[in-house]
């Protein structure tokens, strides 16, 4: 009797865990039932729509995740971690659950049937039902990664990105088709990222052959990156494949930040910057303007490197005075830019930035002090004293360390 009781408890626990896994996936999206004539079965397809999907009419890239019962949530976690900082765009996730027995046939022996299902049934259904861009990404693990290699070679227009984790079943035939595809000088712009652990010795030889083919037939428009990792194994490679692969695929999306003006110059300056953002806008169907973060970094960088020529060029290109007024939220930067203009005899520009700063920060002593400096530069000492005194009053009230400096400059007049 006790044994029966234990078995009942065990059965209920397993059932609860299984149900919890299913419900967790569904909690982060919904599903559709797709009746497939090609596969001769009804397929449940998981769908995750971006947070803002219902709030606009935008079109989105799509990540297709095979073995979604394991990896569907990885794509969601990646997106939710990075979209809020504009590092990657929002994207739709399509999850294809697989049966452990059926996948062995569909991903290898009957691979043409599964590819036909993707090409003629699933992808057209998704494109018809949702607002999609022609920016499809394929993720597959193990046999599904090997299938991804076959799709790349025989159906390269299906996906623009391939994330291949621990690929297996990379047969001689598949290697030959890849070699043939690359020798034909394909025109599509594609990115492939693959990860294999060194402990996966059953696949290292075939992956070495595949990597060699890509290196021999290296082309500018096909980006192949292979990570043979000492740190990963057969079950951890999906984590790094999805994270690093999506970062590679969306590498042109994150706002550019230059850390030196030489880096900016080597990039091609403003002309190349505008071209980059125009291409970015066309790819993702978003505004093609230079991102505000990039502009902000460039203004700060030109000041820090004391390059007024570049600074002045930025002001002219980006309506800089209006941009500074609207996009800087620290009184210190208004002070610095005003000083930059003053020291380069741009008095009207200096005053315009200063007035914008005082409008945003009426109690900033440093801006009142700088207003005094402005009047000092044009010889109006009476006005200079007036603004220095205002700066001293604010600094004294707030017990600011700059009080001594302001007092000293007033006494010098």
TrEMBL record:
SMART domains: TPR (SM00028). SUPFAM superfamilies: alpha/beta-Hydrolases (SSF53474), TPR-like (SSF48452). It comes from the Bacteria. Gene3D superfamilies: alpha/beta hydrolase, Tetratricopeptide repeat domain. This is Esterase.
């Amino acid at each position: 009797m006790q044994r029966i009781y234990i078995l009942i408890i065990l059965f209920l626990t397993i059932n609860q865990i299984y149900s919890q896994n299913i419900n967790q996936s569904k909690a982060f999206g919904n599903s559709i039932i797709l009746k497939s004539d090609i596969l001769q079965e009804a397929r449940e397809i998981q769908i995750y729509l971006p947070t803002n999907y219902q709030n606009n009419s935008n079109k989105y890239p799509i990540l297709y995740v095979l073995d979604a019962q394991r990896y569907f949530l990885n794509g969601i976690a990646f997106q939710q971690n990075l979209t809020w900082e504009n590092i990657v765009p929002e994207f739709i996730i399509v999850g294809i659950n697989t049966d452990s027995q059926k996948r062995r046939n569909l991903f290898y022996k009957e691979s043409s049937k599964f590819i036909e299902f993707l090409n003629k049934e699933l992808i057209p259904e998704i494109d018809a039902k949702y607002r999609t861009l022609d920016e499809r990404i394929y993720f597959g693990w193990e046999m599904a990664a090997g299938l991804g290699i076959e799709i790349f070679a025989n159906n390269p227009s299906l996906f623009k990105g391939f994330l291949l984790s621990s690929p297996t079943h990379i047969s001689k035939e598949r290697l030959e088709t890849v070699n043939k595809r690359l020798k034909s000088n394909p025109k599509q712009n594609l990115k492939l990222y693959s990860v294999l652990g060194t402990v996966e010795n059953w696949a290292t030889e075939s992956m070495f052959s595949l990597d060699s083919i890509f290196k021999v037939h290296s082309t500018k428009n096909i980006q192949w990156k292979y990570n043979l990792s000492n740190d990963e194994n057969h079950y951890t490679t999906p984590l790094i494949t999805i994270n690093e692969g999506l970062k590679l695929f969306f590498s042109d999306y994150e706002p550019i930040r230059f850390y030196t003006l030489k880096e900016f110059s080597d990039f091609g300056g403003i002309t190349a910057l505008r071209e980059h953002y125009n291409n970015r806008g066309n790819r993702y169907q978003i505004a093609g303007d230079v991102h505000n973060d990039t502009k902000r970094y460039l203004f700060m960088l030109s000041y820090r490197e004391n390059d007024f020529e570049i600074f002045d060029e930025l002001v002219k290109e980006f309506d800089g005075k209006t941009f500074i007024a609207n996009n800087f939220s620290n009184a210190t930067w208004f002070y610095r830019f005003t000083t930059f203009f003053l020291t380069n005899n741009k008095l009207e520009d200096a005053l315009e930035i200063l007035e914008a700063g005082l409008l945003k920060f009426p109690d900033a002593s440093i801006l009142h002090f700088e207003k005094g400096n402005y009047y000092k530069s044009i010889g109006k000492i009476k006005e200079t004293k007036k603004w220095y005194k205002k700066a001293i009053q604010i600094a004294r009230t707030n017990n600011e360390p700059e009080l001594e400096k302001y007092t000293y400059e007033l006494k010098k007049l």
